[in-house]
Amino acid sequence: MANDLFRVAVIGAGETGTPLLRQLLDAPFVQLLGVADLDADAPGMALARERGVPTTTDFMELTRLGADLDILIDVTGVPAVREALRHEMQDSGNHHTLIVHEMVVQLMLSLLAGKRVRLKHGAQDY
Q: Residue 121 falls within a domain, yes or no?
Protein backbone atom coordinates (compact mmCIF):
# COMPACT_ATOMS: atom_id res chain seq x y z
CA MET A 1 0.00 0.00 0.00
CA ALA A 2 1.34 3.38 -0.97
CA ASN A 3 1.58 5.91 1.83
CA ASP A 4 -0.27 3.59 4.22
CA LEU A 5 -3.53 4.33 2.41
CA PHE A 6 -6.02 1.86 1.00
CA ARG A 7 -6.49 2.96 -2.61
CA VAL A 8 -10.13 2.14 -3.37
CA ALA A 9 -12.69 2.51 -6.17
CA VAL A 10 -16.41 1.75 -6.01
CA ILE A 11 -18.83 0.53 -8.67
CA GLY A 12 -22.40 1.37 -7.78
CA ALA A 13 -23.31 4.77 -6.35
CA GLY A 14 -27.01 4.46 -5.62
CA GLU A 15 -28.82 3.44 -2.46
CA THR A 16 -26.29 0.74 -1.61
CA GLY A 17 -23.10 2.48 -2.65
CA THR A 18 -23.76 5.95 -1.26
CA PRO A 19 -23.64 5.06 2.47
CA LEU A 20 -20.47 3.09 1.79
CA LEU A 21 -18.99 6.03 -0.11
CA ARG A 22 -19.67 8.33 2.84
CA GLN A 23 -17.71 6.01 5.11
CA LEU A 24 -14.83 5.70 2.64
CA LEU A 25 -14.66 9.46 2.04
CA ASP A 26 -14.49 10.14 5.78
CA ALA A 27 -11.80 7.54 6.50
CA PRO A 28 -8.36 9.17 6.73
CA PHE A 29 -6.70 5.89 5.70
CA VAL A 30 -8.62 5.59 2.39
CA GLN A 31 -7.84 7.27 -0.90
CA LEU A 32 -10.92 7.00 -3.14
CA LEU A 33 -9.61 6.87 -6.71
CA GLY A 34 -12.91 6.67 -8.56
CA VAL A 35 -16.62 5.92 -8.53
CA ALA A 36 -18.68 4.39 -11.34
CA ASP A 37 -22.42 4.21 -11.92
CA LEU A 38 -24.57 4.12 -15.06
CA ASP A 39 -26.53 7.06 -13.69
CA ALA A 40 -24.23 10.09 -13.71
CA ASP A 41 -26.71 11.81 -11.39
CA ALA A 42 -26.84 9.01 -8.80
CA PRO A 43 -26.46 10.34 -5.24
CA GLY A 44 -23.05 8.74 -4.74
CA MET A 45 -21.80 10.17 -8.02
CA ALA A 46 -22.78 13.67 -6.92
CA LEU A 47 -21.16 13.11 -3.53
CA ALA A 48 -17.94 11.90 -5.14
CA ARG A 49 -17.79 14.89 -7.49
CA GLU A 50 -18.39 17.26 -4.56
CA ARG A 51 -15.38 15.73 -2.82
CA GLY A 52 -13.16 15.85 -5.93
CA VAL A 53 -13.25 12.13 -6.71
CA PRO A 54 -13.28 11.16 -10.41
CA THR A 55 -16.53 9.59 -11.62
CA THR A 56 -17.45 7.60 -14.70
CA THR A 57 -20.45 5.87 -16.23
CA ASP A 58 -18.12 3.15 -17.61
CA PHE A 59 -17.11 0.87 -14.73
CA MET A 60 -14.38 -0.74 -16.84
CA GLU A 61 -12.45 2.56 -16.65
CA LEU A 62 -11.75 1.74 -13.00
CA THR A 63 -10.06 -1.54 -13.96
CA ARG A 64 -7.57 0.46 -16.03
CA LEU A 65 -6.13 1.93 -12.83
CA GLY A 66 -4.16 -1.31 -12.63
CA ALA A 67 -1.84 -1.84 -9.68
CA ASP A 68 -2.49 1.74 -8.52
CA LEU A 69 -5.80 0.37 -7.21
CA ASP A 70 -5.73 -1.85 -4.11
CA ILE A 71 -9.45 -2.62 -3.73
CA LEU A 72 -12.28 -2.44 -6.26
CA ILE A 73 -15.66 -2.68 -4.52
CA ASP A 74 -18.64 -3.85 -6.61
CA VAL A 75 -22.00 -3.11 -5.01
CA THR A 76 -24.07 -3.26 -8.19
CA GLY A 77 -25.68 -6.62 -7.56
CA VAL A 78 -25.29 -7.38 -11.27
CA PRO A 79 -23.66 -10.75 -12.06
CA ALA A 80 -22.48 -9.51 -15.47
CA VAL A 81 -20.44 -6.77 -13.77
CA ARG A 82 -18.76 -9.28 -11.45
CA GLU A 83 -17.96 -11.52 -14.42
CA ALA A 84 -16.58 -8.66 -16.54
CA LEU A 85 -14.38 -7.49 -13.67
CA ARG A 86 -13.03 -10.95 -13.04
CA HIS A 87 -12.23 -11.48 -16.73
CA GLU A 88 -10.56 -8.07 -17.06
CA MET A 89 -8.32 -8.67 -14.06
CA GLN A 90 -7.30 -12.07 -15.43
CA ASP A 91 -6.79 -10.82 -18.97
CA SER A 92 -4.79 -7.76 -17.87
CA GLY A 93 -2.58 -9.78 -15.52
CA ASN A 94 -3.51 -7.54 -12.60
CA HIS A 95 -2.69 -9.69 -9.59
CA HIS A 96 -2.65 -6.76 -7.18
CA THR A 97 -6.19 -5.36 -7.14
CA LEU A 98 -8.68 -7.18 -4.96
CA ILE A 99 -12.30 -7.23 -6.16
CA VAL A 100 -14.70 -7.07 -3.23
CA HIS A 101 -18.13 -8.55 -3.83
CA GLU A 102 -21.26 -6.92 -2.45
CA MET A 103 -21.81 -9.82 -0.07
CA VAL A 104 -18.58 -8.91 1.73
CA VAL A 105 -19.78 -5.30 1.90
CA GLN A 106 -23.09 -6.51 3.31
CA LEU A 107 -21.26 -8.50 5.98
CA MET A 108 -19.07 -5.55 6.95
CA LEU A 109 -22.00 -3.11 7.10
CA SER A 110 -23.97 -5.64 9.15
CA LEU A 111 -21.11 -5.99 11.62
CA LEU A 112 -20.90 -2.21 11.97
CA ALA A 113 -24.68 -1.94 12.47
CA GLY A 114 -24.82 -4.86 14.90
CA LYS A 115 -27.54 -6.52 12.82
CA ARG A 116 -27.97 -7.87 9.32
CA VAL A 117 -28.53 -5.09 6.82
CA ARG A 118 -30.19 -5.48 3.44
CA LEU A 119 -28.62 -4.01 0.35
CA LYS A 120 -30.84 -2.13 -2.06
CA HIS A 121 -30.59 -2.47 -5.80
CA GLY A 122 -32.51 -1.04 -8.69
CA ALA A 123 -33.43 -2.94 -11.82
CA GLN A 124 -30.73 -1.27 -13.89
CA ASP A 125 -28.49 -3.57 -15.91
CA TYR A 126 -24.86 -2.86 -16.79
A: no
Q: Write the CATH number for 68.
A: 3.40.50.720
What distance in Å separates the CA atoms of residue 124 and residue 113, rounded to the nearest whole number?
A: 27
Q: Give domain status of residue 70, yes or no.
A: yes
| 41: CB partners within 8 A, 6+ apart | none
Bridge partners (DSSP) of residue 56 are 36
124, part of any domain: no
Asked if the model's pLDDT at residue 123 lies above 70, the reply is no
Query: Domain tally for the chain?
Result: 1
Structural domain containing residue 104: 2-113
Apex CA 65: angle with CA 57 and CA 26, to 5°?
75
d(Cα 75, Cα 71) in Å, to the nearest integer?
13
Q: pTM for this one?
A: 0.89
Q: In 3D, which of 62, 35, 58, 34 has the Cα closest to residue 126?
A: 58
Q: Is residue 90 part of a domain?
A: yes
The confidence band for 1, taking pLDDT boundaries of 50, 70 and 90, is very low
Q: Which of 107, 106, 68, 78 is nearest to 11 (CA)?
A: 78
